[in-house]
Amino acid sequence: MTSSDHSHKCATCPTRHKTEWRDLTEQELELIELTKKSRIYEPGETLYHQGDNADGVFCIQSGLVGARFIDVDGNSALLRLNGEGKTVGYRAFLSRQPQGSSAEVLTPSFICHIDGDALSKLLANSPQVGERFLQHAIEDMNDTESQFGVSLTGSVKVKFLHTLMVFYRQHGSRCEDGLETIDLPIKRSDIAEMIGARPESISRLVRSLQDEELLKFDGRKVSFTNMEAVMQEAGLTA
Amino acid sequence: MTSSDHSHKCATCPTRHKTEWRDLTEQELELIELTKKSRIYEPGETLYHQGDNADGVFCIQSGLVGARFIDVDGNSALLRLNGEGKTVGYRAFLSRQPQGSSAEVLTPSFICHIDGDALSKLLANSPQVGERFLQHAIEDMNDTESQFGVSLTGSVKVKFLHTLMVFYRQHGSRCEDGLETIDLPIKRSDIAEMIGARPESISRLVRSLQDEELLKFDGRKVSFTNMEAVMQEAGLTA
DNA sequence: CGTCTGGTTGATCTAGATCAACAGGAGTGG
DNA sequence: CCACTCCTGTTGATCTAGATCAACCAGACG
What we know:
The structure is a homodimer of 238-residue chains.
Chain A: H1 26-35, E1 37-41, E2 46-48, E3 56-70, E4 76-82, E5 87-88, H2 90-95, E6 102-115, H3 116-125, H4 127-153, H5 156-170, E7 174-175, E8 180-183, H6 188-194, H7 199-211, E9 215-218, E10 221-224, H8 227-234
Helix pairs in contact in A: 3-4, 5-8, 6-7
The structure holds a DNA duplex (30 and 30 nucleotides).
């Protein structure tokens, strides 16, 4: 589906089958519909800020949203990327805690805001929704913990290769001139922020990875000239 | 309660009110009871290993259990500490994924193993259990994400002070000679592993923190000579 | 007593940060 | 069409936090 085919009705939403609302009846969806607010967001816009209280959740129909954490000294880190079908801001809402990070739109996105009251009613009446959220939370946690582990033990090289492999998995593999290829969804400096490094370091690393003949870089296109070795170095042979 | 007063019945378990089973009836508890296996674990023992498949969950009645992650090169990190009332291994069980880290007993502990079948039945019949797990997952995630953020942006000093403050919160504040004091629950080298540093670095850091008159260290006792400044540096003024 | 384990200290090395300059688009506006 | 600026990424020179390697110390403990 292209970014132009945006349904404003959950019932016909092309990505609903990936969301927490996947097994709701039209009846139940109507509850969301009543107070739902949808629109296109441009890169740089923010859904909510670190420290905000949640008044509901955001559901990404298409696009990419990053969770940005900023510490007291102004250092910024990208904790996670959320793509289509993901609901964001749900942890703050469900735990009545302030948002731990800001939600920053990274690519043009179509996003719905789901009202807190509606969501509460849904949770109270439709146990499947809670189950889906549990599943979602666990999945998020598994991802984050794995990244956290790598970030505590690994070098910048390992961390970079690790996130490349993450992209490779979700973000689809595509053969082209025979080689496995991915399209980086975000710019270099943002990748740097995902692994706690500086853009300059990534630049140098990219160069040395090419010299090692592990990968080929062309703009945002990355092709794996030696998948085996990359997996190895990324620590996926355990 | 002392470590000698261990109930083998959930119904009379002194820490049940902190667990996922807190709002179950005696009737429902009986289901767990039937297949439950409890015993005392000594430091160094392991509840499960990274990569294992979960056949149930572990419930900590007393003691401390660490989640240890080891990467391909053998580097180890401590991802999280779980104390009394915490259930561990639930994510692997609920997501049918292999354990992402090992559960290593750090202090003498009394721990129950709860069978997967019993748990499944409970989840199917008692929706509160699922809700408690959701709450637990969210809490864990909030903790981990905050640590992850700090670990991406901060220096060893910041990370160290941050985890000290985490200890300070849970692990109870205690005034003594007027100063706020905490007892480190684990040894220095394990703290080092929690923040991705080497023990030697912690040693030197501790010394410089005392020179700065921020903290006093005496064995595992730490007293805050300048709480304000510590909070500041730990990044809790945002 | 020796042996272990946890912690300290010193000397040295290095991955990666920092600072600074620069280069190639992509708009934008005259 | 060119001149301008913005933005992302590159390269070089230098600096430093923290790792590494190695010796050593104190208390615990059989």
